[in-house]
Amino acid sequence: MFAQLIIAVVPPAPAPADFKTAITTFFTSLTTIGTSVGLVVATFFVLIGGFLYMTANGNVRSLDRAKTCIICALVGLGIVLTANVIAQLVSTALGA
User: Fold this and answer.
1) Closest to 39 measured CA to CA, from 92, 76, 82, 1
2) Is residue 41 in a domain?
């Protein structure tokens, strides 16, 4: 009785070709979502840095904080885009 219940609940394992397609689709979706989130976060921090820069009123410490915020956001954006390019190159190299 218990073995029949387990067989009914757990679907059979997919065929290797289906599994490869599923993994490829999963990682493609994951990199797309990660890149999108990274772009939104970087844009948000560039906007915050711009706001801090405009409201600094000549205060050197506030200007440095704003510049640091903008630079870090752009560096993060570069890392996200580079990771996306590397993921696409690996996907292409593996024939997916």
Assistant:
1) 76
2) yes
- The model's confidence at residue 14, banded by pLDDT at 50, 70 and 90, is low
| C-alpha–C-alpha distance, residues 6 and 11, integer Å | 9
Query: Is residue 86 included in any domain, yes or no?
Result: yes
Considering the entire predicted model, what is its pTM?
A: 0.73
pLDDT in tens, 42-56: 999 999 999 999 999
Domain boundaries, position 83: 25-93
Report which of 70, 71, 84, 66 is spatially closest to residue 27, judged by C-alpha positions: 84
Distance spanning both ends of the chain, measured CA to CA: 42
Orientation angle between helical segments 16-54 and 60-93, nearest 10 degrees: 160
| In contact, 93 and 29? CB cutoff 8 Å | no
The number of domains in the chain is: 1
